[in-house]
Amino acid sequence: MKQIILLSDTHNTLDERFFPHFKKADEIWHAGDIGGLEVTDKLKEFAPIRAVWGNIDNSTTRTEYKKYIYFKCEKLNVMMTHIGGYPGRYNKKALPIIEQANPDLFICGHSHILKVMYDKKNKLLHMNPGAIGDYGIHKVKTILSFNIEGKEIKDLKVIEFARNKS
């Protein structure tokens, strides 16, 4: 079993209120708009990371990370990108890749809107963890915490903090 923390859209900011949750992770997954390698370097102090670059990321970050990644965690096939859309409204560039990769779990960021939903057509679970940075439309900073055991996702939790630290 692996404990996963999923986050996105840090935009070069890591809120210390999330650090106790990062410490519990076996792996941290970042769905893009990192903002700078200082963010991923800090995350690596807590757990190994898997990350993709997003539309705001510079060439240094894009050299370090890929636009799409595919990997297996336990027995679960995972695909992650930054701009992916969601079931019924996938990004037109992402959809053919999703159909070809056939993941069990599809992860993206970009919208700053937390969303977890099952896609019956493509037989996958879609996750967007929202955003934890200080830039964007969101009023609440969110991450997802869950366990992967074999091919099952268990104990899914939303962890949130108000955008203002007060």
Topology overview:
Elements: E1 2-7, H1 19-23, E2 27-30, H2 37-44, E3 49-51, H3 59-64, E4 68-73, E5 76-81, E6 85-86, E7 89-90, H4 94-101, E8 105-107, E9 114-119, E10 124-129, E11 140-149, E12 152-162
Parallel strand pairs: 1-2, 2-3, 5-8, 8-10
Antiparallel strand pairs: 1-11, 4-5, 6-7, 9-10, 11-12
Summary keywords:
166 residues; 12 strands; 4 helices; alpha/beta; 5-stranded mixed beta sheet
Tell me about this structure:
- The chain has 166 residues and is an alpha/beta fold.
- It has a single domain (2-162), classed as Purple Acid Phosphatase, chain A, domain 2 (4-Layer Sandwich).
- Helix content is 16%, strand content 39%.
- It contains four helices and twelve strands.
- Strands 3-2-1-11-12 form a five-stranded mixed β-sheet, with helices on one face. The protein has a five-stranded mixed β-sheet with strand order 4-5-8-10-9, covered by helices on one side.
- The longest helix is centred in the first third of the chain and has 8 residues, at 37-44.
- The relative contact order is 0.21.
- The mean pLDDT is 96.
Structure summary, number of beta strands? 12
Instruction: Note the gap between the termini.
Output: 36 Å
Gyration radius, rounded: 15 Å
Tally of discrete structural domains = 1
> Helix count?
4
CATH class: Alpha Beta
Enter the CATH topology name: Purple Acid Phosphatase, chain A, domain 2
Q: How would you sum up the major sheet?
A: 5 strands, mixed
